[in-house]
Design goal:
Blueprint lengths: L1 E6 H7 L2 E6 L4 H10 L4 E4 L3 H10 L3 E7 L2 E2 L9 H6 L6 E5 L3 H7 L3 E7 L4 H11 L3 E6 L9 H15 L6 H6 L19 H7 L7 E7 L5 E7 L1
Parallel strand pairs: 1-8, 2-7, 2-8, 3-6, 4-6
Antiparallel strand pairs: 3-10, 4-5, 7-9, 9-10
Helix pairs in contact: 1-5, 6-7
Length: 230
């Protein structure tokens, strides 16, 4: 198994084999919490207009997402695990659109297998990939707004790489450092309404969930994000 680490949408487009598109703060952490909160289905889309169209098609659905970290006008929830833990999502269809993560998934056009990557289910991803045993794994750190390297996504890629190759290294120090680095924005008082401190802690609960989220391309150029327990 050959493992490569790359970044941003360009990296997603280059990804081959099994691609893990990583967005820790917060898209794919949010997606895990959506399923944990009872969602029956999760659909990924890259454009706001497509999201509204999907909601018209699926009446038992809610819109979740952000642009510039803030909830999109007309959406039901922001891209926030804290919000979704309080929401009634039982048997609901969640339609998710974000700045970085969802674009990364839909850009992975050359990958045979597509997974959504986060810290909260890192060990499940490692276990699942070891079962599949693909010849190549592409770990794509989407970064902050898909344009700047993000410590949390690169750390997740490092943890996944270590688990897949057997070269496991301690990561607790780097995890703790996130609060003072890329995670500092969650502790800015002016951001509390859309990026609360609880989101930081929920997104960094390593290995909280024992399922993976696998992307399945749809006929309408969107993507189903399917929960697979491992």
């Amino acid at each position: 198994m050959k493992v490569d680490i790359m970044e941003f949408v360009a990296g997603a487009r280059r990804a081959t084999g099994a691609a893990v598109i990583i967005d820790v703060f917060r898209a794919f952490s949010t997606a895990c919490y959506a399923y944990d909160s009872g969602a029956a289905r999760l659909i990924i889309t890259d454009e706001i207009e497509k999201a509204f169209k999907l909601k018209e098609e699926y009446h038992n659905s809610v819109l979740v997402g952000e642009r510039g970290e803030k909830k999109i006008d007309g959406f039901d929830y922001g891209n926030s695990p804290t919000e979704l833990m309080k929401a009634d999502l039982k048997n609901k269809i969640v339609i998710l659109s974000t700045t970085a993560g969802t674009n990364g998934l839909l850009s992975a056009v050359n990958a045979e297998i597509i997974l959504a990557g986060s810290l909260v289910n890192a060990s499940a991803i490692i276990k699942y990939l070891k079962i599949l045993n693909p010849s190549r794994v592409s770990l794509v750190a989407m970064g902050y707004r898909a344009s700047d390297s993000a410590d949390e996504d690169l750390l997740c890629a490092e943890i996944l790489n270590s688990g897949l190759t057997g070269d496991e290294k301690p990561y607790n120090e780097k995890l703790n450092d996130l609060r003072l680095g890329s995670g500092a924005r969650f502790f800015v008082p002016g951001n509390i309404d859309f990026s609360p401190p609880t989101d930081f802690f929920l997104c960094t609960m390593v290995n909280r969930f024992n399922f993976v989220l696998r992307g399945e391309r749809r006929f309408d150029n969107n993507m189903d994000l399917v929960r697979i327990d491992v």
